[in-house]
């Protein structure tokens, strides 16, 4: 009998969830909950769940104009901040979206790197005490992404290390992490992060639209939604020469009728406003300036000066010396904010320039020849769902082990502090 397994990847901005053994999640919804102002009065119970007066995902946004409801975000920078709200979010997810019976279901949940052990215990208490789940496994998001990348490369008939070693660049809506992993274990002391990600790119694009007066052409209430559409539909990473990129947009051609034709780099965004009217605007520099945050974070916040290339290099250089070549040779992109065109290519190029420059300087200084370091950045068509997909592949592994309800009843929530690593090549 095939075991029933559900994978839930909760992110700051979006939650991906669905049944394991599939290549993509069934649902990808905003991690938001709309609850009554006195949210503490609503009790979560398995029974009568359909009558509970709170809503999640896109449905939560429909309550925006109802004065009795308030919109809450239970997570920030990848960490659960409000466990009561998170429990309610999971409740709707399990019973209304996935429509599963927890007593017969094993759940694979994901967590950010360096998630406090107490948070794992909270997860175990909620899933075993409230939902009476059959089993629970909590996997580090970066390891799940590496798992997904392993199987993707294997399906492409590429030679790949079966020992789960690589560096994951994970950027979602709330935070960007760089996580070196060796043999399936996170090298915790070398993790780097910047609290800049998709949400900050959206804010940056919104400000650019305001500054150039585009918000006079459509209702201000639609600004964030428009910025998200621009980011997701037209955003890309430049080759690195910003002056040359600006010049591409500044090329204009006068037509025979005297009108000016904009560069083909400009795109037109047509959309329906919240008032159901049609609007249109030209999309220009924001196409590449938003994603440029990976290489010039000071554009978004002057506190941050190190580019993603510097952080990647620092994370790997801080790792044990015998792991570094493998960490450089398997850099994996994960998360919705890494799907911009040309991101992987530019990362690879700039890392090569940085490392080759260092090697050449060492050769000149010491006279010793050093074997070149191969740098490989791996993109995946499913990298927006890479973490979820990794959990799905994990469930299909014959060696997959999880904590059972019986173990929880015998040993308590402390069992969730440790979850076994399963090598894909086993």
From TrEMBL:
SUPFAM superfamilies membership: Actin-like ATPase domain
Reactions mediated catalytically: ATP + H2O = ADP + phosphate + H(+)
CDD domains: ASKHA_NBD_Arp3-like (cd10221)
SMART domains for this protein: ACTIN
Listed Pfam families: Actin (PF00022)
Taxonomic superkingdom: Eukaryota
Sequence similarity: Belongs to the actin family.
Protein name (Swiss-Prot/TrEMBL): Actin-related protein
């Amino acid at each position: 009998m095939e075991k029933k397994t559900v994978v839930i990847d909760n992110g700051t901005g979006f939650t991906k969830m669905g049944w394991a053994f599939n290549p993509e999640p069934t649902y990808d919804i905003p991690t938001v909950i709309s609850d009554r102002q006195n949210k503490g009065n609503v009790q979560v119970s398995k029974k009568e769940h359909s009558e509970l007066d709170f809503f999640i995902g896109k449905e939560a946004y429909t309550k925006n104009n109802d004065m009795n409801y308030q919109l809450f975000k239970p997570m920030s920078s990848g960490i659960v901040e409000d466990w009561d709200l998170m429990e309610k979010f999971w409740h709707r997810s399990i019973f209304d979206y996935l429509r599963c019976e927890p007593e017969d279901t094993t759940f694979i949940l994901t967590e950010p790197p360096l998630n406090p052990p107490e948070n794992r215990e909270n997860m175990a208490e909620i899933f075993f005490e409230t939902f009476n789940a059959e089993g629970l496994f909590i996997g580090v998001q970066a390891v799940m992404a590496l798992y997904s990348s392993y199987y993707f490369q294997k399906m492409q008939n590429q030679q790949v290390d079966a020992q789960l070693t690589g560096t994951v660049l994970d950027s979602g809506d709330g935070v960007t992490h760089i996580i070196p992993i060796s043999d399936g274990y996170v090298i915790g002391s070398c993790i780097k992060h910047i609290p800049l990600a998709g949400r900050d790119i959206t804010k940056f694009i919104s400000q650019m639209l305001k500054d150039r007066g585009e918000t006079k052409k459509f209702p201000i209430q639609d600004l964030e939604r428009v910025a998200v559409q621009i980011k997701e539909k037209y955003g890309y990473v430049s080759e690195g020469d910003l002056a040359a990129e600006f010049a591409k947009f500044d090329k204009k051609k006068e037509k025979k009728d005297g009108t000016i034709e904009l560069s083909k780099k400009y795109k037109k965004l047509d959309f329906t406003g919240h008032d159901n009217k049609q609007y249109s605007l030209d999309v220009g520099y924001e196409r590449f300036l938003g994603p440029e945050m990976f290489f010039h974070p000071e554009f978004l916040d002057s506190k941050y000066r190190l580019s993603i290339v510097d952080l990647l290099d620092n994370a790997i250089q801080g790792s044990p010396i015998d792991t570094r070549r493998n960490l450089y040779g398997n850099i994996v992109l994960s998360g919705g904010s890494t799907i911009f065109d040309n991101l992987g290519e530019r990362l690879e190029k700039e890392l090569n320039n940085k490392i080759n420059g260092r090697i050449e300087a060492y050769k000149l200084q010491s006279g010793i020849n050093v074997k070149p370091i191969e740098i490989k950045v791996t993109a995946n068509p499913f990298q927006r769902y890479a973490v979820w997909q990794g959990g799905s592949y994990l469930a299909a592994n014959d060696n997959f082990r999880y904590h059972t309800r019986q173990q929880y009843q015998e040993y308590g929530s402390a069992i969730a502090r440790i979850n076994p690593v399963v090598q894909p090549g086993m």
